[in-house]
Amino acid sequence: MQPVPLIRARALGPLLRHLERLGAPLAEALGPARVLLGDDHGLLPLSVGGELWEKAARLAGRSDLGLCIGAESPLSEASDLGQVVSRSATVGAAFEAAVRDAARFNSGQRFWQVHHGEETALHWRYAPALTRGRRQVNEYVLMLIVAFLRLAAGACWRPLELHCEGAPPPHAEQLAALAQRRVRYTRASMAVVLPRALLALPLPAGRGPSPAAEDPLPDPEFAGSVRQAVGSLLRMGAPLLPAAADAAGMSVRSFQRRLESVGIRFGELVQECRYEAACRMLREPGTKIIRVSAELGYTDSANFTRAFRRWAGVPPQEFRRRAERSASLAG
């Protein structure tokens, strides 16, 4: 059973930095997701990330935004997978790392290699839940890969072929200029085709640290990933059931049937996630209760206080006092 596709929030860092340089109105571009993107250690649904790419491209007025940002973003700074891949000794080892580790950091992404005689192709594909912004995300990854390969093959190196999902975009000429032979459209996956001999080329050493081991990873199991997705969507104030179904790439009814098959009651799960998030935030010094209430989707802090008393047996103010005393004794 496939998990709800999730990514680390920091994966959208290059997009945010580009928008900031352009002076784009971030509040309009990011909307409710802005609260998630302020937490580099958090997770968010892949579908939300794709929607942000789509909004950003529209605001910037650029159909080629993915190519543009990919060209200016070093792979080791672009994502956790990029940090892992960038520590590889050769191009071949980097491809193996991408195939092995992609889903650890983005549970909706998959890489694989296909050899054809003296040529090889690195393919990638995203889960069906990534609908909005899919082209932008794919072209961003494409440009990261090309730029990374140029570290080994030279600044003017070009792939033999590119394979792209969908029809040719308005900026098809830019894609054509990247390939030596041609660009193939309407393919089942994205791919970069290169001479197989390039796999043995060495890569420059010492590019970036390893991802922080303590940071959360997308849960590879459906039940755990639903809990993580709901936790993120709560902070966005999204209509939870439709948003969670969208994040899973399903209709609401299909999503409900999937939940039933693993014994999850959505309403109960939402309450559990609210309680866990409330406890975490109340333990943070200086976090106002009204902010906790708002982040958990309550329009009235009195309603939050009543709900928290049901969960914990004490009001949030008393929970906070006890947590502070416990922390003081432990220190």
Describe this structure in words.
The protein is of the alpha+beta class and 331 residues long. It folds into 2 domains: 6-200, H-NOX domain; 266-330, Arc Repressor Mutant, subunit A, CATH 1.10.10. 54% of the residues lie in helices and 10% in strands. It has 17 helices and 7 strands. It has helices at 13-22, 26-30, 34-37, 46-60, 65-72, 75-78, 80-86, 91-105, 134-153, 172-178, 222-236, 240-248, 252-261, 266-282, 289-295, 301-312, 316-330, and strands spanning 6-8, 43-45, 109-116, 119-126, 161-163, 182-184, 190-195. The strands form 2 sheets. The chain has a 5-stranded mixed sheet. A two-stranded antiparallel sheet has the order 1-2. α10 links the parallel β5 and β6. α5 runs parallel beside α9 (134-153), α7 (80-86) packs antiparallel against α8 and α11 crosses α14. The two termini are 44 Å apart. The mean pLDDT is 89.
Helical content class: 40-55%
Sheet with the most strands, sense and barrel status:
5 strands, mixed
- At the third CATH level, what is the topology name of the largest domain? H-NOX domain
Question: Secondary-structure element sequence?
Answer: EHHHEHHHHHEEHEHEEHHHHHHH
Overall tally of structural domains: 2
Under the CATH scheme, which architecture of the largest domain would be assigned? Answer: Alpha-Beta Complex
Q: Widest sheet: strand order?
A: 3-4-7-5-6
Strand content: 5-15%
Helix-and-strand structural type: alpha+beta
